[in-house]
Amino acid sequence: MGGKRKKGESEGMEGDNDSKNNNKKMKQKSEILPSSVKNKEKRSAVHAKLKHQKKVEKRKKLKARDAAEKRALELGEEPAPKQIPRTIENAREADETVCMPDDEELFAGNDADEFSSILKRDRTPKILITTCRFNSTRGPSFISELLSVIPNAHYNKRGTYDLKKIVEYANNKEFTSIIVVHTNRREPDALLIIGLPDGPTAHFKLSSLVLRKDIKNHGNPTSHMPELVLNNFTTRLGHRIGRLIQSLFPQDPNFRGRRVVTFHNQRDFIFFRHHRYVFETKESKQSDSKGKKAKDAKGESIAKEKVVARLQECGPRFTLKLVSLQHGTFDTKGGEYEWVHKPEMDTSRRRFFL
């Protein structure tokens, strides 16, 4: 049972262990991490060497994959499917409230909600923009740019009026929505959008504000009705927020003006961008079937005009994050909330609400 090992066997075992340890030491010496090198110049050299090795390996993998695809096509076989990179967006957790295109209940609710009269063009949007009681220097400049973005928008000074009195005034003057720009430490930090006459009220956190004058090579918008683009408002809550944003803009875009207003939702952050299309004519030299430049009778090269379209940003540029959605108009004490963001909801990076 417990017989002694032979001397040769024990020496062989010890020899194998020694060779394994030596291999480990050799690997550790060859794979020196930059963080373990104290000298700055040597550390940067090690980092550059590792970076170059990774680049070479990546290039080899790409060449091998291209060769395998080419070989499969020559043999008449189907090439291996292309790998899709795993991102937070495509690894999103399944949500029961995602709107499906055949959801009859959703479309029936659209006909009876607070925005149906505007989106059916029975009423034209009329927006009242105001500020909080303590205004700042960047607040008015941001509001002046909002006035150029949203058609049929009017600015009124807040003064010392309570928000409920402003809602009454706006209802009497037949406004369809109120936008309140809140500022903190001389910087706009929140937007309050109130639908009239029956709500709802959406409270957004405002961040990453860049005004038109700070955007390089910015364009100046015209007074044409803009085209509205809404991306990734897929859940029930996102659908409702999307319709609230739609109700701020007229539903008859003038495409001659080439203005585009975009609200792009990604990971529950709503990115706002304002662009205009620019069409430019560029000359490109014609070439014949052999690839040589085509020339006329005089020997001059023939130029061909080509129309190229590009986007020019008009500004402003900012990011919104939904904080709460309240039933009815603004009421801090007795208001009922449809949805309120709480820290306990952020249990996973792959969970989104809009």
UniProtKB/TrEMBL annotation:
It comes from the Eukaryota. Residues 45-63 have a biased composition (Basic residues). It holds the Pfam family Brix. Residues 125-331 form the Brix domain. One of its GO terms (biological process) is rRNA processing. GO terms for molecular function: rRNA primary transcript binding. Residues 1-72 are annotated as: Disordered. This is Ribosome production factor 1 isoform X1. It comes from Theobroma cacao. The lineage of its organism: Eukaryota, Viridiplantae, Streptophyta, Embryophyta, Tracheophyta. The gene is LOC18613861.
